[in-house]
Amino acid sequence: MNTALQTTASPYVAPDWQHAVLVVGAGPTGFRFIEAFRRKDQKTPIILFGNEPYLPYDRVKLSSLLAGTDSPDSLALPLEELQQQTNFRYLCSEIQEILTEQNQVLDAEGNYHSYSKLVLATGSRPHIPDVEGIDLNGVFTFRNMRDSERLKARTVRSQSMVVVGGGLLGIEAARALLQSNTHITLVQQASHLMNNQLDETASLRLQSELEQLGIEVITGEGVRRIEGSDRVEAVVLRDNRRLSCDTVLLSAGIKPNMEIGRRAWLKVARGIKVDDQLRTSDGNIFAIGECAEHRGQVYGLVAPGLEQATIAADNIAGGDSRYLGSHSVAKLKVVDTPVFSMGDTDMDNGIRKRAIVFSDSENYRKLVFSQGKLVGAMAIGEWKETPRLQELITHQRQLKPWQKLRFRFSGFLWNPADAENPNLWPEQSIICNCNNVSRGTLSQALENGCCSVSELSAETTAATTCGSCKPLLQLMVGDQQPAAPEKGWSGLMATAILTPVLAAMMLFIPGLTLSDSVQGGQWLEQIWNDGLIKQITGFTLLGLTLIGLAMSLRKRMKRFQLGTFNHWRLAHVILGVLTLALLLAHTGLHTGNNLNQWLLYDYLALAALGALASAVIALQFKFSATTGKQMRDFWFWSHLLLAWPLPVLLSFHVLSVYYF
């Protein structure tokens, strides 16, 4: 029996650790590489190296940890899941040297590890400015878990703190530190806050928000020196202003951790240089994330690193993916005011740039174009269209003239209802910026059976980094059920059936034949031939048409708010049927000639499309919300498009009758 069991059991194959893939760096980028690689290759052993005395964590959420809104456990990366694999190892040991000729690395304990491929995800470290007093007690950086713990302990007894650096990280740190009731002064050397992402107008709005929180903001001034005998006592600015404080937080940029690559004689410049496949100058070594330099660009944000990790994983697994660069996306929230920047927003960088701006008391939005293509956007205030903007900027789309006009007057590029429903966005639209997950990928996951946010996240990795896209995922999940029937849907359906019947009568029944004598003929012919009656029907028809056009304003102008919209819509379609019936009496079933004929055809087409729109609205509850909304919008806008020629054709008709 035991022999039979031994014969049928699958033999255990020990991992070949001599040909493992080594990943140096246990941050989000390193983990993303492992997750992407495992989806393509489950057999090759992987060794992950970290150099911090903590289990791997998501440093993107460090500011939330500092503010007390997140716990250390919520920052943990899924190491435990990986450790369940027999061909995975995690070692907390710093890599000292890369021996490229032997395909080996040397760790801090003196151990050698062989590799088939090596992935460097070493990240970056804070930039330390060369100023006097930088080594005093009370000077901190904010880049890792240890920095966060030291800062939290410090803020308990700190009375006054100076944050040096008005970029994304500096502002997030300053906002987080307010929780401790410490007086915060934010010093920015550039002319305005977030100068790489925002223009001066947007920055001033952001500065106002920070100052309302109680943060003192000083721009256009750098730090000359930090004073104190043993510990920090003051910061002296370049204009010799002296800011008394007991703590200084340095947040003046980052520097890629590329020294290990330099010692291995890899090509370096601002970072470790890589090609479009993320390979370094050594074909067996890849670099991803903040340590990598691609086409002269080093990205200091997590999203580009996650994109690079996925592409490097595909290439190491035998694929042929290409990385063509990323658009930096910066987001933060000051109190309840979102701040957003994406793409190239520098008006002085590049040729033939122009911008369109929308501004009101609560919002500031700016679109930047280069040679007619959208290349950047920024905003202060809530803007629900930002996920869709990423697809436009990534592919440098050209906006339609009416989109630009809508933006100038309303601040929106699309119908606000559509902007809030991600199921109606183009497939290429990015829903999860951190993990570069598109709407098409999520929709496919929904079709494959995912029915909750957690299942979507597990299937696509969306909302697994910062979680800001979870509301969009919830909308996508909740939008799969059919909508409830519209009020008055049966009346809409009845008019939708009656309207084509009346239109068919006009098109297919011959017009009335005139008698030789005005006295003779049938009564319908006499009505049509009577000048007074014809004037009455004509002006009544004109009046009903104008009323019908005015009714459409009920949905678009806040002043027209009498009654419910459903009642107005039903009245609108009933009026359309009456107008069509009156048109039959006015014309005597004759189609007319020239412009009169075009006027009649426009009436009939307008009525037919209105009937189709009514039918879709009436039966929308039988479709999914997404499909129903798409059909409804298509027929509605077709109906509206044909309404525009009507006033012009009517004017020519009245002019031809009474003038000529």
Detailed description of the structure:
With 660 residues, the chain is of the alpha/beta class. The protein folds into four domains: 10-125 and 256-316, FAD/NAD(P)-binding domain (3-Layer(bba) Sandwich); 139-252, FAD/NAD(P)-binding domain; 421-480, Arc Repressor Mutant, subunit A (Orthogonal Bundle), CATH 1.10.10; 489-658, A middle domain of Talin 1 (Up-down Bundle). It contains 22 helices and 27 strands. It has a five-stranded parallel sheet with strand order 3-2-1-7-19. Strand 23 and strand 24 form a beta hairpin. Helix 2 runs parallel beside helix 9. The longest helix is centred in the last third of the chain and has 26 residues, at 594-619. The termini are far apart. Residues 1-10, 512-521 and 554-561 have low confidence and may be disordered.
Please describe the topology of this protein.
Blueprint: H1 2-8, E1 21-24, H2 28-40, E2 46-50, H3 62-67, H4 79-83, E3 88-92, E4 95-99, E5 104-107, E6 112-114, E7 117-120, E8 124-126, E9 139-141, H5 145-155, E10 160-164, H6 168-177, E11 183-188, H7 200-213, E12 216-219, E13 223-227, E14 234-237, E15 242-244, E16 247-250, E17 254-256, H8 259-263, E18 272-274, E19 285-287, E20 292-294, H9 302-316, E21 329-334, E22 337-343, E23 353-359, E24 364-370, E25 373-380, H10 386-394, H11 401-410, H12 416-419, E26 430-432, E27 437-438, H13 439-447, H14 453-460, H15 470-478, H16 489-508, H17 523-529, H18 531-551, H19 565-587, H20 594-619, H21 625-643, H22 645-658
Helix pairs in contact: 2-9, 16-19, 16-20, 18-19, 19-20, 20-21, 20-22
